[in-house]
Structures are given as C-alpha cells and as structure tokens.
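Consider this one:
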Amino acid sequence: MAIAAKETGNITGADYNVKKDMAPLPRRKPQHFRSPAATPQRQLQTITAEPDSVAGNVQIMENYLELQYRQILNEVAETAVRAGRRPEEVRLVAVSKTFPAADIATVYSCGQRLFGESKIQELEPKTAALPADIEWHLIGHLQGNKAAKAVACADWIHSVDSVKLLQRLDRLAGEVGRRINILLEYNLSGEASKFGAGDGDAMALAQAAAACRHLCWRGLMTMAPFQADESELHRIFGGLRELRDRMAGAFGMTLPELSMGMSGDYHAAIAEGATLVRIGTAIFGKRSYRL
C-alpha cells in the first residue's frame, strides 16, 4: 500500500496509521547524511540477483529509488509525529539536481509530485521531458539574467534574496501572465559561502515582497551549515520560524511555508516548523559533479 498522497507527495494521516501496523523501517541517524551504505553501489546487490544485464541494471536502480523514497516518506512522517505535528503538515521536495529524467520518472511513479532543481539549465529540459503535473521548485541561487527562464519553468522559487531580483521576477511574471510562488531566502548562519539576505535587509526585502502584484509570497527559506551541531541547527531553523512570525504580524499576512532541512538535518528542521523539506541524497544517492 502506498504511503504517500498520490498527487502531492504528502504523507496523509490515514496512510501513516496504516504504515504503523507494518514492519517498521530502520530509523536513520539524524546526523548529516554521509553514509556510503546509502549509496546505490553499496545497496543494489541486495535488491536483485541479476545485475549483469542492461534491463537488470535498470530494474535495480528503479527498486533502489522506490525503496529509498518510501523510507524517507516514512521517516519524515515519524519525525513530524515525534514533534507533535501532523504528517501532512510537512511536504517533501525531492531534490533531483544532477540526476536524469529517468530517475525522476521512477520517483514520480511512486506518487511524488514536488521536485527541486538548483540550475535553470537542468530545470528547463526536465520540464519539457516529464509530466505536466509535476510541481517544480527552483531551490538554487538565481542570477538576474536567468530570471525570465525561471518564471517560464518554475512553479516555486525558494531563493529570492534581493529587492532587485524580486522586482525583476514580478515584472517578468506579469508580462507572461503567470503567478509564481516565492520564498525569501535568509542567511541566518552568517556563512560567507551561503546566499541569502542578512538581518539588516530582512524587513526591506519583506516589504518589497508584500508589494508584488504577480508573485505570491508564501514564506521563507534558509540553509544550515553542513557541519552544524544539533544546537546550531535548532538555533537557525527556530530563528527562521521566529522571523517568519514577525513578518506575518508586521504585514498582516499568512506566510505558511518554511523551506528548511535537507538530507542530513531535516529532523531538526521539522521539529522547528519546516513545511517543505528539500531531500535529494537520501533518495537519489550521492551526486557526481563535473569539474
């Protein structure tokens, strides 16, 4: 029995209750996701006895992706329940950057509909090749010269971090008659390597977002340092929730979404109120980046 709502990738309360009666999957450790045991090379041989043929290798990968995806869905639901929240309050964005359309199609066939990409040059061809009911989330840093393509391809943009970019997106969305969901990205860790607006720009960026006519400001996004300990993770994720609450009060708006938490730290993010968790490695395996 599927444990995810077919059209959204959410875990429903009813499906979670059914899942509790089944044999539980082993719980992942809440540390950053580095274990080589979670990569295809270490797990695939246990899934099939015929790894030598091309068809066999394809089936191995499909089985691996389905196994990983369903395990992550279950873990996200369990984490929400432990935090005193309903499983359906947290949506999974399957981060498919660097992985081929065939892998996305496999996870799509399991019921997932929210997928995340970091670069326009990857997002654009995938939107053309894959089903139209996929909800595409652009989660990577967006340069102004790529804004038009982002407006054309993405349903959500998580990484709006300047007034200039915000106003450009608003104008472009109006020109093509689209209404794009956006999140404002804030850098609460202070890391120079991270994108996102700082504390000093927080309210000015929010004020500009509230004034946009063609963008739907839905909430905030942040990233934590890779090596952050539990206390630092809770400080950053809790800080984003508090910032969101202040902005909602200041502008009289409902800002329901908090995009925070990745494969290695989503447990802490959910505990602090995440509604969108961006998980890629724990589903698709390790990435190979071209130099």
Observations:
- DSSP finds eleven helices and eight strands in the chain.
- Confidence is low (pLDDT under 50) at residues 1-8, 12-49.
- The first helix runs from residue 13 to 20.
- The longest strand covers residues 215-221.
